[in-house]
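Give me the fold.
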Amino acid sequence: MNFKYIISLLAITVLLFNCSSGDDDPSDPDPTPDPNPTAVTYNGHIKSIITNNCTSCHGSTPTNGAPMSLTTYSQVKSAVETRGLITRINSTSNPMPPSPNSPLSNADKNLIQQWKDGGFLEN
């Protein structure tokens, strides 16, 4: 009788330890995932859009009547915050860049809006 009791107690103990949750489970998600893996940054996304579409007029020395330079992070951020850059790139009646230049693609416009919405990340 004692032998059955010891075996039963041992079996219950083994089951309890096997069913307990442990921190070493490889199926657990990463405890420190990247909080925003698709964050839009100036250096990673916006700078190339501005360089390819804007700096021919908005260069370090603006030309063709451009009112400001868009060659640095702070200049582009300021243009979005205080000069209505997003409104201009989305305008159908007074777009930037002006014709005969091609307008920005919707993807590029969306990236600039996401950059603003994401807090103007630089890197």
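The chain has a mean pLDDT of 86.
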